[in-house]
Structures are given as C-alpha cells and as structure tokens.
Amino acid sequence: AQKVTQAQTEISVVEKEDVTLDCVYETRDTTYYLFWYKQPPSGELVFLIRRNSFDEQNEISGRYSWNFQKSTSSFNFTITASQVVDSAVYFCALSESGGYQKVTFGTGTKLQVIP
Amino acid sequence: NAGVMQNPRHLVRRRGQEARLRCSPMKGHSHVYWYRQLPEEGLKFMVYLQKENIIDESGMPKERFSAEFPKEGPSILRIQQVVRGDSAAYFCASSPQRIRLAGDTGELFFGEGSRLTVL
User: Which residues of A touch B109 (CB under 8 A)?
Assistant: First the structure.
C-alpha cells in the first residue's frame, strides 16, 4: 500500500525567509509518480509539479525547488524568499504505475507567510 | 477553454436528504476521479470512472454513495440519506488518458470542489 507522510502540520515564516516542506512516501512499486499541489484559502487545487520515480534530478521553477531522493524516499519542496501569496496548504501526493491517476495525498502542510 | 466544472459549489442538506454533486470534465477528457477532503485532512480517493464505466471504486463507502459517468452529460456523485459525517469538500478531477511514462505532465486537473454541509 502506498502512503505519504507530511510531518509538518503547520509552518509560519516571515516574508522573504526560505522554507522547506517535507514529504516522505512509501510504495512497493519501482515506478511511481510524485506530485505537489497547492491549495490556497479559496480552496481550489493548483498543480505544481509531477516527478517520475526514475528521474531524480532536482528541479527549480522560479522561487520553487524540489529535492527528490529515492534513498530516503523523500520529495521535499523549498520556497525561496517566501511571499504572503505563498500562504496555503501544500499537499504532497503519490501515484503508482497502475495506469491511471489513483493518487494518494498526504495530510498537507499549512504554510503561513507573515508580512 | 473551460476547466473542470463542479456544481454546486456549496450545498446544504439536512440529515436524511440526498446530495447530488456534478462534475463536467475538461473538454476532451474521458477520465474522471472523485476525491473527498474532510475538514483539516488531505484528499482521499473515492472512485475512478471512464465514460459509462466504473473502473475503481475502492475508496467509496459501501453504502449510500454511488457515482456515474454517463455517455452524455456530467459525472454525478450521489449521496443518499446524508449524515453529518458526510460534510466535506468533494473534488472532481479529470485527465485525458492513463498515465504515460513520458510526454505528459501527468497532471490531474481539479475542479474547485463542492462543499457539502449536512445540518
């Protein structure tokens, strides 16, 4: 069975600080996909990134970066120079290679960026 | 280029009533997924449907819940005889196809959710 753990329930940072959101996953599959979604206060889900299990290259997109390490089953997300608009709940998620997107979500990390 | 459309956005029901939540996938998408988000929790998979077929309903409660995705029209998540514990946000997502290993982002396109409150 697959499982995603986001141990940090809530994080508060002051604007412009860097913040890292942790994600640890469990799966028996050798091929799987990892995701991060953002849920702002308005409630919708915003796709941020998807990673294949065989691609361990770190990725950077603007102020966002992701560190994927299979050895520790982690897929951490870092926001550099945080802004108030980054305040949201962030979900890490996992999908196994069953051919469709039955995605298992973590319980989310609520990030509050204080001006 | 409309995204995934869910309605109603907010629904209030009294215990024992029925709730019907509708989801129109993105144009060209034939795969629909329903997820439930209980207050202060992550999303939990409920059911995966293709047109006229339920592919995986392993996350659906055994009683009172049903889902369909007819050949024409939106997907419907139906909850009969609602109870207070059914109060949650119900998200629908769609995708054009099954996952491929390369060539697509693998993104699930989510609607804005339907928030059900049971009094």
Answer: 47
